[in-house]
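Quick one: structure for this chain?
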Amino acid sequence: MVERIRVASIQYFIRPVRTFAEFRDQVAGLVETAEDYKARLIVFPEYFTVQLLTLGNTHRRIYDQVRDLARQVDPFIAMMSKLSQQFSVYIVAGSIPVLDADGKLYNQSFVFAPDGEFGVQSKLHMTRWEREDWSVSPGTGLNVFDTELGKIAVAICYDVEFPEIARAAAREGCYILVAPSCTDDRQGFLRVRYCAQARAIENQMYVIHSCTVGSLPMVPAVSLNYGQASILTPSDFPFARDGILAEGHPNQEMMIVGELNLNTIREARESGTVLPLRDSQSTAEVLSRLEVVRL
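Got it. Here's what it folds into:
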């Protein structure tokens, strides 16, 4: 595993596009810029692909719109695979809806290696609008991606609000958790942000949070976006004072870049001021003795 990794988290501005090529050019420009800053891992936000809905009939039902978006999966994968090879970087390509052979819809994040190969992480917990308006189905398992940069896991937006996911990844040896998100208001954003910070502290790991900003008034489910990308750290002496290695300005189109020291994570897990990942091993014993005391 390498010692230091420079990473880029995209605060992606969603705007209408007239052609797939316009979408490709926006994405490619960001990847090229991140590579100019020597980033080896680039993270895009959840559902940044909804831009492609503006290529079709925006007056269709929301249920139909998201299935239209799923038809863009193949060209999207081809585009991201080519970019990862062209710039020799790892890319966590946000997320895009994917239809399986049985017609079930999943929200999936594709993780691309510098050789263009990829793995997939499905979102495991659906928000109400995903379940009730888009009829998106939850995935069933957590994947840990073993890369030249070390082990990486992906918790898509709402998933980062469930501590068990990040804890399982940390116990598997992950030092980096990626949290691509898409939130429409400040409350939703803060739910994800605060939980991402908690995952960094309790698992002694870096969390890279990427967000959508901008608006698509013609697509009701994502007509507004509130976001502020960040790179979060544990809260201990070797790390950033406030547990924030880098963060963007809210709701502006931008990219944040930071350098992760993986040796610092390793040392913190072995000899930090507190050892929450190690000490959590006793939780099962505590819960096995749980009692309700009536007063």
